[in-house]
Design brief:
With about 425 residues, the chain is of the alpha/beta class. Helix content is about 35%, strand content about 20%.
């Protein structure tokens, strides 16, 4: 199927906006604000050396705006002009980036490809449109009120980078959303001469953060009702130039579908089963809400728990995509969290939710629950096959047909002469 996918060359933006490695952060922020981008390729003497991201700058609020870009740049994933759509999506999701540079045969910069470019092409991907937003949505993670203080969001940059947070009024109705771009306009304001306002470094200027969320949110939020197809959601994101849409019921947010959720479908659709049911190595796993600074030993333990669970599941079905959403609780215990799981397989989608004092325990219990759901489904399918009438020597069909039609077919089969093999 890989041969049918478009490549980075087909979707990328050529001649991208770049920034030199010795440019100050104030210049990078100004370019990001004007061009409405979150990542910029960094060049040294016209050679690509890395990327600077809005999130990496926002996390280092202690740095002066005169700090050179090269001190905060990251190494982006390798994407060439011939990289197919699913691999581009997987690399962007794995790196947690909205965009990445595309390089040519000599590792020269030839373009930039973003999640938005991939979402624009998503309606043309076969089989994606069959899914509904309620199958893909995750919990908003945190719902903010209009009267909440801006400084309460400073610790939510990881969630904000994945998708904006819904803002509700006193009656719980969705009235807007707040994202990283909204915060940026408060953190770094341009002043005369094109330099950034260093208000964030002056203790006397903490009042800049002491404002209501309602005063900086963007409104209205882009929404879809329950039942909307993935294709329609992708088209709305492209038309509205947003990275996510909120799923609403009676005006209240019940979930959020981000670009990453839709791209995960493409990654899962590209997975092809190997011999038998396939193995856990065929599965793409994405985890939302887990802090990037997590303990390496904990991350290894999470990988181990997920791998064990997927091996059990692969005995019954072919798993394609596992999406985990971790929503930490505002308690004195750092590990308190609700974990939601969505597992895409060749036999449908399975869901599970668990709340625990430790998100690692929650993940382990969710993998057990998913494995049990899959086992029950396969047992029920086998039971239906055993109960269904069938021709001698033929496999039972999983669909339940008309008893009258099956009886006639059996009579015709009995009357027909048997062929010798």
């Amino acid at each position: 199927m890989a041969g049918t996918w478009p490549t980075a060359r087909d979707l990328m933006t050529p001649r991208p906006i770049t920034i030199p490695n010795d440019a100050p952060l104030s210049q990078a922020l100004g370019v990001m604000e004007r061009r409405k981008v979150h990542e910029l390729p960094v060049l040294r003497r016209k050679k690509l050396v890395g990327m600077i991201t809005l999130e990496s700058i926002a996390r280092r609020t202690n740095l002066a705006l005169s700090t050179k870009v090269e001190h905060l740049m990251i190494l982006p994933p390798l994407i060439t002009e011939g990289t197919p759509y699913p691999e581009v999506a997987e690399r962007l999701l794995a790196a947690g980036l909205r965009a990445a540079p595309v390089v040519g045969r000599r590792n020269e910069l030839v373009g930039v490809i973003s999640r938005t470019d991939l979402i624009r092409a998503l309606p043309g991907v076969h089989g994606i449109g069959e899914h509904r937003v309620e199958e893909l949505q995750s919990a908003p993670g945190l719902i903010v009120s209009e009267g909440d203080r801006l400084d309460s969001l400073l610790g939510q940059l990881r969630i904000l980078e994945e998708h904006p947070l819904p803002v509700i009024d006193a009656k719980g109705r969705l009235v807007g959303a707040v994202g990283v771009a909204d915060l940026t306009r408060v953190f770094w304001r341009p002043v005369a001469g094109g330099k950034g306002d260093a208000v964030r470094h002056d203790p006397r200027s903490r009042h800049a953060f002491e404002v209501d969320v309602g005063s900086i949110m963007h409104s209205p939020a882009v929404t879809v009702p329950v039942g909307t197809t993935a294709t329609a959601a992708a088209r709305l994101m492209t038309k509205s130039k947003v990275s996510s849409v909120f799923v609403v019921e009676e005006g209240r947010p019940v979930g959020v579908v981000a670009q990453g959720d839709l791209l995960g479908l493409a990654v899962g659709a590209a997975a092809t089963p190997g011999p038998g049911r396939g193995t856990s190595s065929d599965v793409y796993v994405q985890i939302h809400g887990l802090r990037g600074s997590g303990d390496p030993q904990t991350l290894l333990e999470i990988d181990r728990v997920i791998a064990q669970g997927l091996r059990r599941i692969s005995h019954h079905v072919h798993p394609q995509l596992l999406s985990l959403n971790i929503s930490p609780h505002a308690t004195h215990r750092a590990g308190d969290a609700t974990v939601q799981a969505r597992l895409h397989t060749d036999h449908g989608i399975f869901y599970a939710t668990d709340t625990e004092w430790n998100y690692l325990v929650g993940i382990a219990l969710l993998m057990d629950e998913l494995a049990e759901q899959v086992r029950r489904m396969r047992e029920e399918t086998r039971s239906q096959r055993r109960r269904a009438p069938r021709r001698p020597g033929a496999e039972a069909d999983e669909t339940v047909g008309s008893p009258e039609l099956e009886e006639k077919l059996l009579e015709m089969t009995a009357a027909a002469p048997r062929r010798r093999r």
